[in-house]
Write a structure and sequence with these properties.
8-stranded mixed beta sheet; protease (chains A, B, C); DUF2172 (chains A, B, C); 4-stranded antiparallel beta sheet; Glucose Oxidase, domain 1; aminopeptidase (chains A, B, C); 459 residues; zinc (chains A, B, C); aminopeptidase activity (chains A, B, C); homotrimer; alpha/beta
Chain lengths: 459, 459, 459
């Protein structure tokens, strides 16, 4: 049944991506709304998607919400009416936010509006023009010659049937409440058109995580934010200022189905609980950990000095480091079910580690308590301690009321799940009590814990 | 004469182990008392051993002192009365704390009470049953067949002639007073029967250290604690609560004669003076340093959160990492005189480094004082500084009233003994004064000092 | 023209060394004054050299200013009057501070006053006797035999025509004022006679730096101190106690023309701004960084506990690590124009990094400000950020009012000069403001910044 569950998950993750792939998305417009429709269908019963429409022109901190953009059609046709480049064939053909055009023009007139990749002559690049009112087409470099040839028959017909004007920016949230104040923010951008790894993988895996987490006990709430990149996260941040202190941990999810090992990008401060939890999990999965950089996805907004939110990022080979990035080669074949499934597993483990990451105090700190008397220890003295016993001994040794469970896991080299279970046993035996003080984002993380964490690589 | 001294030491260390080896020891009983008799004989004149008998049933923190156990005899004989397994032949044959039995039984009835090591068919394992009232025998796996064969002649006679009942737990202390408040605790467990490395090596080397230290000047006192593992140290801790703040540094000594390099196990906090001193010495001896773990010997009691004592551990290849551990193969041939002697040297160096580990203040801090005028510097300018000059320069550069001599040693890469001698010269010249503030356990240890310390490996 | 400038610099650096090489220098005397005459000639118009003469016998902290020493002549001649060893031929022949002698003596009588290097028979060693009233000659070991042979003709004539008596110690300063309080101290010792790398390279490169810096804008002042080693810096420190808080950063310059990569020696505290700036620059030049040690040049005086000044040292292969050190083989051929020029470049970069090392506060910290709207960002979304954009993003991400520009450079892996330019653009756009609080010497330098700094090695 576990296998069946996993198979069902794989199928759903891929099916959603297949449905999302052809939609013409940008940072605003009906493509975004249609994308949310698809995702909403897969939410479990009783879990609602809240959608928000923010009017164009709204000030959001240093930015202003863009005019809404919608594309009905766009093509370049030859004198015979044959469409040589057509948005209907691939959403990347039209530069995002292109303004309307309807004109006949020579190849030379058209050329400045054409974007290709000479070094990858079969791939269509991805281009946008959010802040300059212009238009353009993207195409495979080898098709330039076709256009040029076609232009010999007569002027080319260029049609960009788009609208750019007052409307709104759309984003959505799915909230799973928790037993305690505070929440874990998961977020994926939804503004890219037919690009599978960047960003359909994030949208589909995040939806699957919500399905799973909705059925599990949750100490902290979980909030999924689906919004366009940059302007979307800034809009959400601007509209949720009072809520931000509730965001205890966060992860940007993107690029989860492409090649390469998992890569965790630290928060700006690098010492937040999410950094510890993600580092332990990602290293255990054979992945890598990198320091923060202000270039990337929406982690750069959440970590900005004024917000200072503890939001890291999980991806595989990051943006700009694989040639298919922001090209038509980032298609449905580029992402594999195995990579998507392993990403799902890792993110789920990080979330569960954060749910378990409370701080305990040892109630019997004068020497090791007699575990045997409480039925917690093998009675015949043998050679070595079991994992479960080691988990208990570490919890008793390190639970000083300031060291959290994930920190103990890093020190002990014991998986968080094993420690979590041992902590419940010790709590039941009256040997450990939850420390009620809130976990401070800057709490102690000893250098030995860091080193231990860094050493949790698979052998 | 130095060679003669060393030879005498080697001889005494081995002779004590030979006398201790056949005694049937456990965590209580006459074996413990006989062990102390042997060790007491070798104390120098004027140095007393204080023995303590703590009644069974006494509460000691979370534990209760066990009933006393004594074994007069134990054997398994065949129908002809031939003793096939006999405590008189090896103390490991009887499971520690076995309750009395006198019965005839078939091999099948007896089998659940027999412990062997199938993967090491010639070795007898070491087993105990302190907290479950049962009994058992340990034997070489190849001897199982002998028993089974013998049982065909008729039922086997099983005799366990032991007593378990109210009595007392025995431990002993040897105290060498110091010139100042505070003491260095050395401790070894004495509860294991015929196991040479674990624990006779610790008992015999520790006794030799007391012999040597008794004749040396001592800034701090030295306390040797000889007690059964776990329950013994917890009992001592429970009975000495008010004394504990006097324990400034501590070392658990065990496994000193087996194979492998020296291994220092850090205190839980890892930044105590004993950690610095032991790290410098052990690395200079080609040894290794490991982080704390709550599994091991009595360091786990001393370092427990409620006591938080700065007690590290010096051993060679630690428990559980060599196949002979807790088997009859840990015999007198397993420990070598060379390893025992080198362990003795290293522990003595650590103790002396701690004795020298005071904090100085440079009394002439405005530039380098003119050493030449005071006869402390070569007068003709040459190429390089001598070790003695470097020791003085480092002491003057680093003696800010907060950095201790061992910290300076780590920074300077100069042996503690050379610095100690240079410090006396500078004190005599009025350039350095002892800082009277007590050394705080959490005092500054710069990362460069740590790195320097870690780098003091033999080339 | 840049090439012409560089060629002119190389010529001047060498020409000064050629003029300084034959002068007979020591820690006091006319050789020092003649040296300053040469250097003063090359100062640019309007930049003055201030000379100080401090009377012999003046107390300077733990030291007393030496009697002044001058050498008119010194030789050893054979019975025919032929001078076999002659100060006129090489300044190293006479032991510095030799007292006057005029005597005839046998080779055996003379021998204790002769210093040679048996393992380098062609080289003359460098020796001084500042604090013992004696005399001596240094010569090539192979010339000992010549002297011995010559002595068979009759007694050798020994003449040391020197004066040692009340006079003064000479040092000089060149001050370039800055726009703000605080200054960068550059210092080189000037007490060594004909030794090119140690110390003529420092004197000549430092003079060239002053020429260049005099024509540049200067946030902080620059002070060049030219003084004899040890007693000179201690004298300056003693006479400038109230000024010392103005010394915000400092560099001892020496050994800049010999072989080997650049070597930066950290300040005693190792976490000063000059440590960060020099580490970044020196590593980018393929150089090395070492921890402080109290042996070396005048950094040991500036870093002494009572002064605690943030003064590091830049050299190439340090004193005592190359065989030519303190011998006649440290001659003008030993130092190369390329090494001198590269040293000049690196020190200038460190000084300019320190001039730029101010702390900014991001004035638009709520998410990334919209750089495109301000003309600071490429308008068509493409693949990767340019260096200039990354510099802006890093400044915005890290300018929390406590992290300085050099710290940002270490985090970002972006050259200080690029960040400095980006900071001006952001300041002009109203996005960044200088934080007026003074930079504290012990301000935050995160371990990730340190690690990033350490990683800035050329690939």
């Amino acid at each position: 049944m576990g296998d069946d569950e996993a198979a069902g998950r794989r199928q759903r993750v891929r099916a959603r991506m297949q449905r999302l792939y052809p939609l013409c998305r940008s940072i605003t417009g009906d493509g975004v709304r249609a994308t949310l429709d698809v995702l909403e269908e897969d939410l479990p019963p009783g879990v609602a998607m809240q959608r928000h429409e923010v009017p164009s022109g709204t000030r959001v901190h240093d930015w202003v919400v863009n005019d809404e953009w919608n594309a009905r059609a766009a093509w370049i046709a030859d004198a015979t009416g044959r469409r040589l480049v057509d948005l209907a064939r691939h959403t990347l053909h039209l530069v995002g936010y292109s303004v309307p055009v309807r004109a006949s023009m020579s190849f030379e007139e058209l050329r400045p509006h054409l974007h290709t990749m000479p070094d990858r002559p079969d791939w269509i690049p991805y281009r946008t023009t959010y802040y300059e009112r212009t238009w353009g087409f993207c195409l495979a470099h080898r098709d330039l010659a076709v256009l040029e040839e076609a232009a010999r028959l007569g002027p080319l017909e260029v049609v960009v049937d788009t609208t750019v004007g007052p409307g709104s920016l759309t984003y959505a949230e799915v909230v799973l409440p928790g037993d305690e104040p505070g929440e874990i923010l998961l977020t994926a951008h939804l503004c890219h058109p037919s690009l599978a790894n960047d960003n359909l993988s994030g949208l589909s895996v995040a939806t699957e995580l919500v399905r799973e987490l909705a059925g599990r006990p949750r100490r902290l709430g979980v909030r999924l934010l689906l919004a366009p990149g940059t302007i979307g996260s800034i809009t959400w941040l601007a509209r949720n200022g009072e809520h931000l202190p509730q965001v205890r941990h966060g992860l940007v999810l993107t690029g989860l189905g492409g090649p390469g090992p998992l890569v965790y990008k630290r928060t700006r401060r690098a010492d937040r609980p999410v950094d510890r939890a993600a580092e332990l999990v990602v290293r255990a999965h054979g992945g890598q950990v990198r320091d923060y950089s202000p270039y990337g996805y929406d982690e750069r907004q959440f970590n900005a000095l004024g917000f200072d939110l503890p939001v890291g990022r999980i991806s595989r080979t990051p943006h700009g480091e694989y040639p298919e990035y922001h090209t038509s080669a980032d298609d449905l074949a580029f992402v594999t079910d195995d990579q998507l499934a392993a990403s799902y597993d890792a993110v789920l483990e990080v979330v569960e580690a954060l749910q378990a990451d409370v701080t305990y105090r040892n109630l019997s700190p004068y020497g090791e308590p007699q575990l045997g008397r409480r039925g917690l220890y093998p009675t015949t003295g043998g050679k070595n301690a079991t994992d479960a016993v080691m988990a208990m001994l570490w919890l008793l040794a390190a639970s000083d009321g300031a060291t959290s469970l994930v920190e103990v896991a890093a020190l002990a080299g014991v998986p968080v799940a094993v420690l979590h279970s041992a902590a419940r046993d010790l709590e039941s035996a009256g040997l450990l009590a939850r420390e009620q003080a809130p976990v401070d984002a800057h709490q102690y993380w000893s250098s030995s814990a860091r080193a231990a964490c860094a050493a949790q690589r698979p052998s």
